[in-house]
Amino acid sequence: MNDQSRDDPLRTDLHALHILRCVHRTSSFRVAADDLGMSQSSVSYAIDRLRVVFNDPLFVRMGRGISPTDRCTQVVEGIEVMLQKFQDLAVPQRFDPSTATDRFVLSCNFYERSILLPGIMERVAREAPNIRVSVIQANSEGHRQLSEGICDVVVAPLMARQSGLYSQRLLTERYACFVSHRNPLAQKGITLDDYARARHLLVKPAFGWRPYFHEELDRLGLSINPVLEVPSFGEIDRILTNTDLVLTATSGLARVFTPRIACVPAPFACMFPVEMAWAGRTHTAGAHQWFRQIIADTARSLPPGGVEP
């Protein structure tokens, strides 16, 4: 270890401190080397490096043996505390949901709240009655919310991959059309010509947001000009009931709105994926792993939603 190490003690490795503790305990370089499974020269080299770091001889000759200096004993007392804390950090604490008081922030939108939150909270209440869950609106801000630590988990339609984030596919559904039961399209179905002529309702949760199915419409050379745009799916069933409007959305919304409104297959093939995403800072935390597992289990347990193509 050079003089730079003396100026920067953080360059000292934990193994060297462990060696110092062992030599202090045994009062012998040879015995410490045997206990550590090292050569005596390697132990001596480590102690020489630490003498530079702490600017102290650490051990002095006393007859045929060695004796620690007062500074050495003081350092070892600190090492005991530090190494114990490090060992505690190195072994993940077991998470016990029955006694946990954690708070989780879940970011999602209307659809994900509607189909997942009842099941999530039923299980939380059963397994972890002291856990708190806060739900915020995701819109198209999920990545930013995770990166800035605003939320712990995002559940939303497919998000672009981003460094430092993890993701898991929860659902893959098809797009469908939702109409009033009084609308003739509810009985006969919707063709591409019907779709092109229809009066459309569009849910637009954020400025500049573009639904995924618009890419398929572009491929087909179709475009729609919605007569009504709303920021959320809330009250959609009441809006559609007495109108001829057509809403295009994931078929899974049938779990929420039928039988109040009709769900018929969309006249094009397009998938609606829902993913769960989280940041690296919570990836290995026991509490967060438990919460994410509940979300994934709830998604898997959902009954079939929507209609067959």
Automatic annotation (TrEMBL):
Highest taxon, organism lineage: Bacteria
Keyword list (alphabetical) reads: DNA-binding, Transcription, Transcription regulation
InterPro entries cross-referenced by the UniProt entry = LysR-type_TF, LysR_HTH_N, LysR_subst-bd, WH-like_DNA-bd_sf, WH_DNA-bd_sf, YidZ_PBP2
Regarding protein family, the annotation reads: Belongs to the LysR transcriptional regulatory family.
Protein name, per record: LysR family transcriptional regulator
**Alphabetical list of Pfam families matching this protein:** HTH_1, LysR_substrate
Q: Where is the HTH lysR-type domain?
A: 12-69
Question: Matching PROSITE patterns, A to Z?
Answer: HTH_LYSR
